[in-house]
């Protein structure tokens, strides 16, 4: 069990549809009324974190599982219709505006801080955003944080071209420490010991031609991510952080569409949170 005080942070990794594991974790936290003074989310972690910050229990699960089952918003249909593998118009406009409205008022009134991570296409560096009042800006930021490279379009935030925060800071634990956290709960979407391939992933010049620093960041992505995983495991062993992660290699892919697999992973997230948090 971890004691949560004013110096405790919550760090939410992304992972595309593997983020349903995080949905289960966050629903458990809401069921137990567990709040953190500071939280930070990347990509799917940013999306799910917003529902946690507005205290809308079950909303993230509905978005990732029920909505997917009904609207099939991943795959060829959105590619042909929206020029992207994910229907962002549905997820970031119709869903929060009409299907299951996002409670912007509850989010604005939540005294706890929440940051979302994006990658600046011009600099190839991570950007950290904190916004509670402008509805448009909130959506711009979370959409950019979740815009997977190659699969989704570049999104502009304050006039700057942005993509998925996971390109540059998939597990923003150091950012949480920089913001004053002394201990953190880190929610990962991969099992302990997982590592990406260490092979060079040099991005050809014809991809993101106008953003050479983005191409460098994409090329270094695996190396940076593996280093972050090593840091997480070391700090976990030292007792400085608590990690909630899947207990075994998962079958769910980044663009998973199997409702059964997603539902099972959601339940695993809920059960793992219950086991590790001990509340």
Could you characterize what this model shows?
There is one protein chain. The protein has 279 residues and is an alpha/beta fold. The protein contains eleven helices and eight strands. Strands 1, 2, 3, 4, 5, 6, 7 and 8 form an eight-stranded mixed β-sheet that branches. A hairpin with a 2-residue loop joins strand 5 and strand 6 (160-164).
Can you tag this structure with a few keywords?
eight-stranded mixed beta sheet, alpha/beta, 279 residues, single chain, 44% helix
SSE diagram, text form:
Blueprint: E1 8-12, H1 20-31, E2 38-42, H2 44-53, H3 59-71, H4 76-82, H5 88-99, H6 104-109, E3 113-120, E4 125-129, H7 135-145, E5 155-157, E6 160-164, H8 173-178, E7 183-187, H9 212-219, H10 221-238, E8 241-244, H11 259-277
Parallel strand pairs: 1-2, 1-7, 2-3, 7-8
Antiparallel strand pairs: 3-4, 3-6, 5-6
Helix pairs in contact: 1-2, 1-11, 3-11
Helical content class: 40-55%
Number of strands: 8
Radius of gyration, taken over Cα atoms and rounded to an integer in Å:
17 Å
Number of helices: 11
* C-alpha end-to-end distance: 7 Å
The helix-and-strand class reads alpha/beta
Q: What does the main sheet amount to?
A: 8 strands, mixed
What is the mean pLDDT?
Answer: 94
Principal-axis shape equals globular
Uncertain runs: none
Helix-strand sequence: EHEHHHHHEEHEEHEHHEH
Q: What fraction of residues sit in β-strands?
A: 5-15%
């Amino acid at each position: 069990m971890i004691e949560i005080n004013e110096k405790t942070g919550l760090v939410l990794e992304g992972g595309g549809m593997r983020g349903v594991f995080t949905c289960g974790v966050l629903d458990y936290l809401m069921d137990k009324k567990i709040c953190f003074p500071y939280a930070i989310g990347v990509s799917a972690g940013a999306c799910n974190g917003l529902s946690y910050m507005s205290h809308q229990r079950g909303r993230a699960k509905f978005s990732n599982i029920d909505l997917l089952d009904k609207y099939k918003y991943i795959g060829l249909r959105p590619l042909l219709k929206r020029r992207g593998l994910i229907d962002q118009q549905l997820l970031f406009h119709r869903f929060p505006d009409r299907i299951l409205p996002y409670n912007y008022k509850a989010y604005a009134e939540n005294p706890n801080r929440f940051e979302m991570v994006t990658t600046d296409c011009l600099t190839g560096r991570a950007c950290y955003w904190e916004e509670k009042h402008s509805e448009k800006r909130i959506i711009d930021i979370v959409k950019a944080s979740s815009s997977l490279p190659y699969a989704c379009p570049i999104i502009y935030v304050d006039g700057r071209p942005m993509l998925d925060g996971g390109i540059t800071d998939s597990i923003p634990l150091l950012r949480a420490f920089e913001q004053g956290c002394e201990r953190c709960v880190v929610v990962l979407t991969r099992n302990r010991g997982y590592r990406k391939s260490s092979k060079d992933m040099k991005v050809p010049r014809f991809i993101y031609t106008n953003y050479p620093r983005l191409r460098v960041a994409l090329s270094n992505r695996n190396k940076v991510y593996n280093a972050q995983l090593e840091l997480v495991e070391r700090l976990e062993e030292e007792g400085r952080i608590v990690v909630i992660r899947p207990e075994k290699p998962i079958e769910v892919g980044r663009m998973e569409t199997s409702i059964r697999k997603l539902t099972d992973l959601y339940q695993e997230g809920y059960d793992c949170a219950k086991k590790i948090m001990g509340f």
